[in-house]
Each structure stands twice: as C-alpha cells, then as structure tokens.
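fwd from M.: "can u put these together and see what the complex looks like"

so here's what she sent:
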Amino acid sequence: AQSVTQPDIHITVSEGASLELRCNYSYGATPYLFWYVQSPGQGLQLLLKYFSGDTLVQGIKGFEAEFKRSQSSFNLRKPSVHWSDAAEYFCAVGAGSMNTGFQKLVFGTGTRLLVSP
Amino acid sequence: DAGVIQSPRHEVTEMGQEVTLRCKPISGHNSLFWYRQTMMRGLELLIYFNNNVPIDDSGMPEDRFSAKMPNASFSTLKIQPSEPRDSAVYFCASSPRTGTRGYTFGSGTRLTVV
C-alpha cells in the first residue's frame, strides 16, 4: 500500500534561516508527489507538485522540493524562512488505481514548523 | 473563483443527533473528496466521487456515515447518529479530471459532538 512518512513531528527554525522538511514515500510506480501547507483553522493549500521531468520543482511562497527516486524522498526546502511560514506542512503521494486511472492522495502525518525570532 | 465552499464552519451537536455537512466544489471540477482530520489519525480519506459517482467509500468508518453527490455542484456527508468520537475537522476537496493535479481544499467544518 502507498504510504508517506514525515519523520519530524515538529521543527523550529530561526527567522531568516534555511529550512528542509523531510518526506519519504512508498509507492511501486512513478509517484505523483505533493506538498501542502495548513495554517491554523484553515484548509490545506497546495505548495507544489511533482509528476515527471525536472526533479527540482518550484512552488509558491519561495518553496522548492527535490524528487530523489533512489532515496524515495521528496524533501521541501526554503532558503530563508519568514515568520509567516509557521504552519503545518503535509507531504502526499497520489495513489493510482489500475482500473480507473484515478489518483487519490495519501497524506503524511504532517510536520509543524515553528519560526523563532 | 470562490474555491471549495463548505458549510457550516463549525457545528456543535449532542450525541445521537443527525449531522449534515455540505460542500460545493469548484465549478468544472468533477472529482470530489471528503477527508477527516484528527490529532490521533491525521488526514483520512473517507470517500471520493468522480462525475457524481462514488468510486471508493472504503474509508467511511461506519454505517452511521453516508455521503451523496446528487449533482456536480453539491455534496453532503451525513452522520446519523453522531457520537463524541466523530468530533474532528471534516474537509471537502475537489479536482479536475482524475485528481492527478492535486486537490483544492475547502476551509473545513469543525464538528464537536458532546
């Protein structure tokens, strides 16, 4: 079965410092990979996605992620964190159906980012 | 574009009562998903629809839960009777075609069953 592991429950980063959030997936075929962000009391907002091609993908708000097939990873990065980036971040893999070709998203448990002054 | 619209934003109900959550997907999106989020279990997919037809409801926890999508612009998730352990945030999401481009989520309904 498809699964996503986010090993860090929470991370604290100083404002202006760089950020890397880890994500490992388990999926037998070429995955569709996503990062979402959730601010308190809000829904999930799509940051970026990977389907194929260039393994380094750019997203909104200055985020990027790199797909590494050999490591089954899709880590999220940002060179300089802003206080407004404090939120919960979810990695997800699109799990396809052989019959319908349909993708449902399987989410990781999330990483809560705290930004210190 | 108004995004995915869910109502109500908050619902407090007594155990045993019927609860109905509503969702209006983005116009033109033909896939719709219901998720439940709790601290203990994270984000769980309950059911999803494609072209108004339920494709997979294996995530629906019990027979007390039911979901319908009578047309392309409206879906409901009903819990009857509700129990305290149903307390969670319920999200609706929609996507075009087969969901391969990612979903757009609504703001969620926070359900509290007392």
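replying to her w this: The mean pLDDT of chain B is 92.
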